[in-house]
Specification:
With about 300 residues, the chain is an alpha/beta fold. About 30% of the residues lie in helices and about 25% in strands. The protein contains ten helices and twelve strands. β5, α6 and β6 form a beta-alpha-beta unit. The chain is elongated.
Length: about 300
C-alpha cells in the first residue's frame, strides 16, 4: 500500500483511482464491508483502490474538547488497511485551507484536479465542504463525465440490526461496554504503550503490575477489566486497572496491568492491552488491607472469565 500525506495542491502522479472518503475511525465491521467492496470493485474494473482520510479529524480541528477522541491510532489504522489489501491511503491535512473550501471547490480542486478519481464511494449521510454544506446529492449532480459515484446505505449488525457507528463505539468504550465494542469492531479494542517504572506499591502487596501512560486515544471508563496483553507477539491473560488509583491518592491517569503466571522484567517494552470485559468501578478503599482483598476478588473474577473463553 502506498501512503501519501498530502495538503491542498500537492502534486500526485496517479490515475484510475476508485476512492472512498471517510475517517474510518476504528475500522468497525461496517467500515470493513465498505472497504472490501471498494477493493473488490477496483480489482474487477482494473482501478486502484484508495481511501481519503483527514488528519486531524475535523471534529478535533474545530474543537479543543476532542483531545482523546480517536478509537485507534493513525499508524494502527494504516497497518489494518494494508492488511485488507488497499492500494493507496491519502491522509489529507485538515487545516484552514481545507476547512474553508466550498463543496464545489472540494470536488473540483481535490477530487477532480488533485486525485483525478474515476469512481467515488461515500456513505449515504456524507457531508463535506465549508459548514458541511455538501452532500451526496451535490456529488451526484457534479459527477457528470468526471467520475462515477456509488452511495453506500447504512451497514447494520446481523445480530442487533443496529447501524454500525464510530460514535456509538466511542460511547460504549467510555461506558466500559467492551462486549459490544469488540463485537462491532470484529476484534478486541486495545490501548498500547511502553512500560514505565511505577511506585512499586503493587509489588509490595504481591501484585506486580506493568504500568503504562494512557495514549491519546479515547479513554475507557475508569475501573478494573479482564484483559489480554500482547508482548512481542505473545498473548497473556491478565487484569488491569484504568484510573487515578484513589487509594494511594494518585493524581496521574495510569493503566496498570497484572499478568497471570508471568515473572519477567518488561520495563521499557511495548505492550498492547486488549480490553475484554468490565469488572468493577474504580474505588477508594480505606486501607491497603481492603484493597488487597478486593484485588484477590478481581483476579479471581478475571481468571473465571478467561477460563470460559
Amino acid at each position: 500500500m502506498k501512503i501519501y500525506n498530502i495538503k491542498l495542491g500537492t502534486s500526485l502522479n496517479i490515475s484510475n483511482i476508485n476512492l472512498a472518503i471517510g475517517n474510518f475511525d476504528g475500522i468497525h465491521l461496517g467500515h470493513q464491508k465498505i472497504i472490501k467492496e471498494l477493493i473488490n470493485n477496483s480489482k474487477k474494473n482494473q482501478l486502484q483502490s484508495a481511501i481519503l482520510s483527514f488528519n486531524p479529524h475535523p471534529r478535533q480541528f474545530f474543537s479543543d474538547n476532542y483531545e482523546n477522541f480517536n478509537i485507534m491510532s493513525e499508524s494502527s489504522k494504516i497497518s489494518f488497511l494494508e492488511k485488507l489489501g488497499l492500494d493507496y491511503f491519502f491522509s489529507l491535512t485538515f487545516d484552514h485551507s481545507i476547512a474553508s473550501l466550498t463543496p464545489h471547490k472540494f470536488i473540483k480542486d481535490i477530487l477532480i484536479s488533485q486525485l483525478k478519481i474515476k469512481n467515488l464511494i461515500v456513505g449515504f449521510n456524507f457531508k463535506f465542504g465549508k459548514n458541511r454544506l455538501g452532500d451526496v446529492n451535490l456529488l451526484q449532480d457534479q459527477s457528470g463525465n468526471n467520475f462515477n459515484i456509488k452511495v453506500i446505505h447504512p451497514v447494520k449488525s446481523n445480530t442487533t440490526s443496529e447501524v454500525f457507528s464510530s460514535s456509538l463505539i466511542r460511547k460504549n468504550i467510555q461506558a466500559g461496554n467492551f462486549e459490544k465494542v469488540n463485537n462491532w469492531l470484529g476484534r478486541n479494542w486495545s490501548m498500547g504503550g511502553t512500560v514505565v517504572v511505577g511506585d512499586k506499591r503493587a509489588g509490595k502487596i504481591n501484585f506486580p503490575t506493568a504500568n503504562l501512560i494512557p495514549s491519546n486515544l479515547i479513554h475507557p471508563k475508569k475501573g478494573v477489566y479482564a484483559v489480554k496483553v500482547k508482548i512481542e507477539n505473545n498473548l497473556f491473560n491478565g487484569v488491569a486497572n484504568f484510573g487515578n488509583r484513589p487509594t494511594v491518592d494518585g493524581t496521574k491517569l495510569l493503566l496498570e496491568v497484572h499478568l497471570f503466571d508471568f515473572d519477567e522484567n518488561i520495563y521499557g517494552k511495548d505492550l498492547t492491552v486488549e480490553f475484554l470485559t468490565f469488572i468493577r468501578d474504580e474505588k477508594k478503599f480505606e486501607n491497603f488491607d481492603f484493597l488487597t482483598k478486593q484485588i484477590h476478588k478481581d483476579i479471581q473474577i478475571a481468571k473465571n472469565y478467561h477460563s470460559k473463553k
